[in-house]
Amino acid sequence: MVAMDSAARTFHNLIAGEWREPLSGEYLENRNPARRGELIGLFPRSNAEDVELAVAAAAEAYRRWRATPAPRRAELLFRAGQILIENKQSYARDMTREMGKVLLETGGDVQEAIDMLFFMAGEGRRLYGATTPSELPNKACLTARVPLGVAGLITPWNFPMAIPSWKIVPALICGNTVVLKPAEDTPLSAVNFVNALIEAGVPNGVVNLVMGTGPECGAPLAAHPGTRIISFTGSTEVGRQVGQQAARLFKHCNLELGGKNAIIVLDDADLELAVDGALWGAFGTSGQRCTAASRLIVQKGIHGKFVERLTERAARLKVGDGLDPNTQVGPLINQEQLETVERYVEIGRGEGAKLRLGGARMEEGELAQGYFFAPTIFTDCAPEMRIAQEEIFGPVVSVLACEDLESALEIANGVSYGLSASIYTRDVNAAMRAARDLETGIVYINAPTIGAEVHLPFGGTKNTGNGHRESGLATLDVYSEWKTIYVDYSGALQRAQID
Ligand code: UN1
Fold first, then answer.
1. pLDDT tens digit string along 436-478?
2. For residue 339, is it within any domain?
3. Which of 204, 180, 205 shows the shortest CA–CA distance to 190?
């Protein structure tokens, strides 16, 4: 362990194309959550002064970058996508080591960034505006998307490369420059992603990286008057502060916050398919997704069989180090998250829910070295229980019984969040009604609540966000604004609404 520690690398911030030490001179440890003895590296503990330099560098680079034709900007993104393809395995390994999720999933995380790079690079030759007739003769009217300036991007640890890519890539294609503040638990994946962009030829200062904690480094970035766009993914509590600050300075602001996503299983569902979906939705990424299925709303006719089959299969899930190809469920990200999950299990018990499976840390053998928690199933949950209302962000799922589609929808919609929802049924009428009436930004039919693709809008209703969307073309509205251009070629004064 000591030998490993001394071999650990020290990483730096990227400001104006240079890797620089944080002005504080202090560093934070990044440890493997599956093996806490393993130090992955030391990463800057940056503060407002580093943020100041990064924003200044981004502002300086903006002048040239906004004037670079979008198809040229796109070429760099295509090249970065290629670099990610070539390094996919090693980036995935790094990510599993710093974050814990299994290799298959970290490969998917890198793939999501590749997909985003290629999708948005294609947009370099589109970024369509409109032309439309004028009400006056010899006059042209058109619209164009224009960039805003510096984008401040604050990203979470659960998708350490995918989510930075959802923000950086559309920001760049639109002509903005960026300052990224990644989660302090997963800085290495951010370094890998930013390195790929630099290697692809993105000019100095266009992408800046400052690492550190939310309060010390994220907050000054969000508050900085020089950032015209803020995009934040994280808790609803912090998102509210970020949104309020951004509103004071009239910034574009995109917030992706919590979820309490439900899978509805109707009596006519394909049982095995629904169980497959519930297992993947609830326990994939150890439940640490904002799209995780943390509620299963099951119609009473299938409830007994469903719970039995789910419990049987969840009990067989292999929990362990995500680098082991046999592992299906990795560790939680850190001690704090582990304690949160433990606390919610106690809350669930106290509320009278029945603990059907799990409910405790796993500490046998090698598992004692990491933050492992057993896949946990509560049944007999009532909709108003806290475990059925609040985001837990761990491998804990609450099963609620329902009478029919109507009551299922009422329960599903009866939470403060609205990110993703799903229904398993063979009845097309029920499926279409659910798709219409579920109050979420994303709905899946006969598939779990996770699995968003980059070319479609991603985001939610209610306390999940502020109405903006990431991914898809919808996200261009976050990273650009409209300019309306009138060209009068009549050679005379023409007055709109009058002549
Ligand atoms: C998140 O949980 O923060 O749809 C993002 C999914 C992934 C993205 C999840 N593609 O689950």
1. 999 999 999 999 999 999 999 999 999 999 999 999 999 999 9
2. yes
3. 180
23 CA to centre of ligand 1 in angstroms: 34
Q: Which of 458, 464, 469 gets mutated to test ligand 1 (max ligand atoms within 8 A of its CB)?
A: 458
Number of structural domains in the chain: 2
Domain check: are 252 and 283 in the same one?
no
69/136 same-domain check: yes
Closest atom of ligand 1 relative to the 450 alpha carbon:
11
Distance from the alpha carbon of residue 292 to the mean position of ligand 1, in angstroms:
8
List 174, 217, 253, 290, catalytic entry: 290
State the Cα–Cα distance between residues 407 and 375, nearest whole angstrom. Answer: 27
Model confidence pLDDT, tens digit, residues 244-278: 999 999 999 999 999 999 999 999 999 999 999 99
Ligand 1 residue neighbourhood (C-beta within 6 Å): 112, 158-159, 289-291, 450-452
Residues 172 and 226 reside in one and the same domain: yes
Give residue 259 CA to ligand 1 midpoint distance, Å: 11
Residues 271, 228 share a domain: no
Q: Is 256 a catalytic residue?
A: yes
Same-domain status, 242 and 305: no
Please give the number of the atom of ligand 1 that sits closest to the Cα of 158. Answer: 3
Neighbouring C-beta atoms of residue 280, cutoff 10 Å: 18
CATH (domain of 479): 3.40.605.10
CA 285 to ligand 1 center in whole angstroms: 10
Sheet holding 252-256, edge to edge: 18-20, 13-15, 207-209, 177-181, 150-154, 227-233, 252-256
Residue with CA at minimum distance from ligand 1 atom 10: 452
Q: Are 273 and 446 in contact (CB under 8 A)?
A: yes
Residue 290 a catalytic site member: yes
CA of 204 to the centre of ligand 1 (A): 30
Alpha carbons within 13 A on the beta-carbon side of 46: 36
> Is pLDDT above 80 for 6?
no
Residues 313 and 196 occupy one common structural domain: no
* Closest atom of ligand 1 relative to the 289 alpha carbon: 2
